[in-house]
Design a protein that fits this description.
Chain lengths: ~160, ~160
């Protein structure tokens, strides 16, 4: 996949993050891609679905699995790439491993809640049986600013 | 909660594990409990839903959140206990933390895939912001035997 394409898909993830923010969610977005096509895209929906597990990454992984039912293949064998605007948490990182995502692209780091470079360092553990190729930093500043602005407004309320 | 009740709920988790096994799933079952009542129960459904994220624990957490929508409260504030027949994986352990489960009961240990005592040791990390009370070993042998029998049959196929 060329760099231009990666930027194109991460821009869509940023758009999803913005929409999530407008809906009162922490502005994080994710996109799954197969054969250079978007399969699923979503922002966080924890508030709107009253479910703390509805992280953007989980939603797009679930939707991708559902999409693949008709094709009779498992996401585990489908060579899916995932783009997300923030370093995945521990839950999402392990979900990404369970789905055998091929390439993981994430924009900003998350020292407080991340599970890739921080905390559990999920992909470095012996209990992790698939590690994606990891690409960090595309659209980092844009994602960081979205999150900063969101929490600044939240604190003022 | 008395010991008899804990045994009662873990027995239900074992029943769910058995049903999962009969449906071609790895035999693992889970139950959520609130005010001494079962809210959700399920076995693994990865094969049947074509989704590697459909671990029994995730299913019952999702169903519990859904159940609570009508009551207008979040699972995070509902004092929910979770019973599962195998040590939760890294994804499920962090999901349990995100849902602020009060008590986690699990039957058998999982050195190869567990995320509580093995691998990521999710609840011990600085990026984990809620740790449930953990109770291990109830129905351990029954759960271990279910899993052993399942994989023995699988290897013969």
């Amino acid at each position: 996949m060329e760099n231009n394409n990666q930027k194109f898909f991460m821009d869509i993830a940023i758009e999803e993050a913005k929409i999530a923010g407008l809906n009162g969610e922490v502005p994080i977005g994710a996109v799954t891609v197969m054969n250079n096509e978007v399969i699923a895209k979503s922002g966080n929906k924890m508030q709107n679905l009253n479910n703390p597990l509805m992280h953007a990454e989980i939603i797009v992984l679930n939707e991708t699995s559902e999409f693949l039912i008709n094709k009779g293949i498992s996401i585990r064998h489908a060579k899916v790439d995932l783009f997300t605007t923030l370093e995945p948490c521990t839950m999402c990182a392990y979900a990404i491993s369970l789905c055998r995502i091929r390439n993981l692209y994430y924009a900003a780091d998350d020292p407080k809640g991340g599970g890739v470079n921080f905390g559990s360092k999920v992909f470095e553990q012996g209990t992790c049986h698939h590690k994606p190729n990891i690409h960090r930093g595309l659209n980092r500043k844009i994602s960081e600013n979205l999150l900063k602005e969101f929490f600044k407004v939240l604190r003022k309320k």
